[in-house]
């Protein structure tokens, strides 16, 4: 379905981003990966799916490095056809205790980076009259939790950015949408579970249930593979008229 197309996925050396990259690769897309994880391992996993893969180590808090990454992708593969803005960081603290530097970093990486990649990708998409921008927001782009002010603000901002650019491109072959996951079992979340199990002297399985029961009624984690398959759908002809959606994949989190 995506043969001849190029996908760039930020924050794609592990977790959600790598899962999405692999799903797009299975559809034939060439990939540009980005992130600070195990680069060679990630490239190998994607290349094993039979597609060309490149990597750019842009720091997503730095607009000049983002511009260099977008230019690199264009020079290597022609243009970015599918842009997945996934890079993100988190910090938890009450607002009065929130380190301003951490606030600035979260807004830069979780929100502003998507503006910078998208503004640079849209011109070629307009020229081709086809493109897909998929922003990985969060259930926290739709509802809030305490002690996550920067993350919630950034993810609400991503949903608003998605809607605005979807309207700007509504009459073209470009679609802009957001995916809003709840709890996803990534290596970072697994660390939280392990820490809870150790601190509360309970089993890892019980720690998982406790974590999920606070927010996610299904008591099941979403997987990176499931999010990848949703991204594939959003790239398909069936989603040609899906524009400006914030699609929650959250086991019922936002429903209650």
From TrEMBL:
<dbReference type="GO" id="GO:0032787">
    <property type="term" value="P:monocarboxylic acid metabolic process"/>
</dbReference>
<dbReference type="InterPro" id="IPR050259">
    <property type="entry name" value="SDR"/>
</dbReference>
<dbReference type="InterPro" id="IPR057326">
    <property type="entry name" value="KR_dom"/>
</dbReference>
<dbReference type="GO" id="GO:0003858">
    <property type="term" value="F:3-hydroxybutyrate dehydrogenase activity"/>
</dbReference>
<protein>
    <submittedName>
        <fullName>3-hydroxybutyrate dehydrogenase</fullName>
        <ecNumber>1.1.1.30</ecNumber>
    </submittedName>
</protein>
<dbReference type="Pfam" id="PF00106">
    <property type="entry name" value="adh_short"/>
</dbReference>
<dbReference type="InterPro" id="IPR011294">
    <property type="entry name" value="3-OHbutyrate_DH"/>
</dbReference>
<feature type="domain" description="Ketoreductase">
    <location>
        <begin position="5"/>
        <end position="183"/>
    </location>
</feature>
<dbReference type="InterPro" id="IPR020904">
    <property type="entry name" value="Sc_DH/Rdtase_CS"/>
</dbReference>
<comment type="similarity">
    <text>Belongs to the short-chain dehydrogenases/reductases (SDR) family.</text>
</comment>
<keyword id="KW-0560">Oxidoreductase</keyword>
<dbReference type="InterPro" id="IPR002347">
    <property type="entry name" value="SDR_fam"/>
</dbReference>
<dbReference type="InterPro" id="IPR036291">
    <property type="entry name" value="NAD(P)-bd_dom_sf"/>
</dbReference>
